[in-house]
């Protein structure tokens, strides 16, 4: 039985059929949001390839039991590391060494590159050499959130699969199956932009932080107080929340249905009264700041906190 949620099973079935026919390419590139199950799909396909039974994945063969125990010697997982969260060339060289080793279980070998779009130029070029000369019975699964951030030469040597996003009904059903209280489903999915795996993972601190940010941005008009509050928040979480508000307000301006937590709707209703051009400029600023924070670990937090506070207040809510 396929353990994946229903919106991922059509894609997994396609790969299963290709594998059964002996036509599976040596490099699969999965494109999608982690919160929609990108990593769950990558892990499942790796298990599928390593299983040694006819009806894969069987869950009972030696290979499957090693996978369950997390000690399969023929599986390698590479993830971004360090403050910069990139996949470095030394990690890709580790992939090269692994590819040339003999499979200890006598079957296939699988390499998962989690966050493959976080490779730098040197690591991407090192991987390219391996993609050009794939080893027999060795399969690479690249998991990426963005296709555009991968080198065209890397993309062209992979079979690309794009994940479907779940419908609201599918996502809500998944949350219910994970034990999320029905009264929290809408709130959590709004926070996660409809991504169910991410919505399930929110802890109480994240929910409370979200509500504090709603309340503060809705009422606070003092520049110094708002800047001080921003300075205390988790940057990526706050910027994502601001972006959600702006995008929701823009959709409202075009009479598009918007799913929001009840706590956020009054703020977004007011934000939708702001001129669209001003909202787009603020949106561009949020995206620019998000990118800067991702690429510059030493960005002055007090400076950008004050700048963000000033730009928010300039919207004249």
Automatic annotation (TrEMBL):
Superkingdom of source: Bacteria
Tell me the GO molecular function terms: DNA-directed DNA polymerase activity
Q: Which UniProt keywords apply?
A: DNA-directed DNA polymerase, Nucleotidyltransferase, Transferase
Q: Which terms under GO biological process does the entry name?
A: DNA-templated DNA replication
- Which Gene3D superfamilies does this one have? P-loop containing nucleotide triphosphate hydrolases
Q: Which residues form a coiled coil?
A: none
Return the GO cellular component terms, semicolon-separated. DNA polymerase III complex
EC number per UniProt: 2.7.7.7
- Pfam families reported for this sequence: DNA_pol3_delta2
Catalytic activity of the protein: DNA(n) + a 2'-deoxyribonucleoside 5'-triphosphate = DNA(n+1) + diphosphate
What is the protein named? DNA-directed DNA polymerase
Q: Which organism is it from?
A: Saccharospirillum salsuginis
